[in-house]
Each structure stands twice: as C-alpha cells, then as structure tokens.
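Sequence decides. Consider this:

===
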Amino acid sequence: MNKKGIILLLASLGMAAMTAMAGQYGEGTLEEGNVTILRNGKPMVMSKGAAKIAIMEKDLIRMGAKGRMVIQTNEKAVVTLGPNAILHVEPWSQRDKKGNVRMLFGRFRTQVSGLVTGEQFNVKTATATIGVKGTEYVAIVSSNGNTTMIPVENVVQLEGLDGLAQDVTPGQMSVVINGQRATQPTSVPSEVKGDVLNEKLAAPSVESTKANLLPGEVSLVEAGIIDESLLVESKVEEFTMEEALLKPIGEMESLEKDARSFSREAEIK
C-alpha cells in the first residue's frame, strides 16, 4: 500500500482515541508560522504571536509549512517541532518502556534535563522507540515510519520493533527501516549532518512525494548503513503501523479542511 493508500485508510478511521480529555501535558510557544491542534474533534488554528498555548493530553499537533513550536512538557523535556511535523500526545507502553509522545511525522529536537534516578523520557514512532535519561537529540520520521536519530549531547538509545536498543553517541547516527532492528551506530555522513543538524528542522508535507524519504538515503545505502531491499519494501509494500499511530493523521487530514469554519478558540494562557 503506497502513502496515498495509507492516508485514505487513515481518513476512514474513527475518533475514538480523540474523544477523552485529560490534563495539561505542557505549554507551547509558537516561534514561527502556524499550527493546527486537533482537540476533541475540532481543529484549532493558531499563528505566530499567540499567547502561550496549553498542550493537553490527547492533542494532535500539526505544524504549518513554515511553523516551529517549542513545547515545555511535564516530563522535564523540551520538544521543538519543525515545519510540517505531526505529533500526538497519547500515552503508550511497549515492553519495559512507556511515554506520552508519539511522533507521527517530520523532524523534532528534544532536550531533557533534571531527571532523577529511574526517570526516562521516551518518544515512540511507528517503527522505533527513542529513550533518554537526560540529553539532546534530533530525529526524523518519514511518512512510512522510517526513523533516523542523531544525538547532539550524551548517549541516546534507539530501538526497532524487536526491542534491541542501540546506544548512540554524538557524531553517530542510527536508523530504523521498515520496523527492523536499529542499525549499529555509525558516523554521520557530512551530507546528512548538514541537512539534519540545523535550527529549521524542515520536512516536506506529509502529502508530498518526498515525505517517505530520510536524509541521505542514497549515501546510507551506498555505505552499507541501511539495507536497500528493506528501504524499498518500506515504500512499496503494505506497512503495518499500530492502529493507534494510524488514526490521528487521517483525522487531521479530514478535519483540517474544515478548520476555517471554526473560531480560533483554544485553551491559551
């Protein structure tokens, strides 16, 4: 199933995961562009200059084409979302890890500090889990779930669906393709580093034909870092994401079209 087919599937899924409201998860500052937040079935559009935005549990956040937002979370982490990024604040657990952030698409930077013994900040994508005890990293998630992670500071763990974690240090990267085991940490190629480690964190739209690309794919295949057959399979074969990760994008695709009919009502502090 190609990306368009997946989006059509997503659009047919219900609102069950979005109906329950919970508490506040954090606070967002919109630094550039605009953002759409899907909350209780209603999309709310906000632009640069808005007051601090209360980020609630269950919120689905989709950045505009030039948007950038910094979220101060209750988990002692600061998450910066780049243009076109899509994030779902939804609790999850997998094996011995759990968290509240599901990164569905795009690029983001995370800075974590002040965690005490036993605490960890974890982010889930469709194919991978990123875990830190106190550090900074940049990650990219393609439209079919392939995930690249590059630490900026200290050690970051990346694991695929098999649960085998790779410890990755600054100057290295690890990649999860098609849900398989995270690649062995390897030095970041210069073309990937220049593309990823910048402040813009820009990604194409999830509807773009480039949305299923990771930075430097060709060079990573040529260097033997990622397997070409797995990469091709991830783009042309049916991809089995968790249903909980599939639902939100389809709802945003459907409801965002009607955003103009709603006011800019939002829980803003």
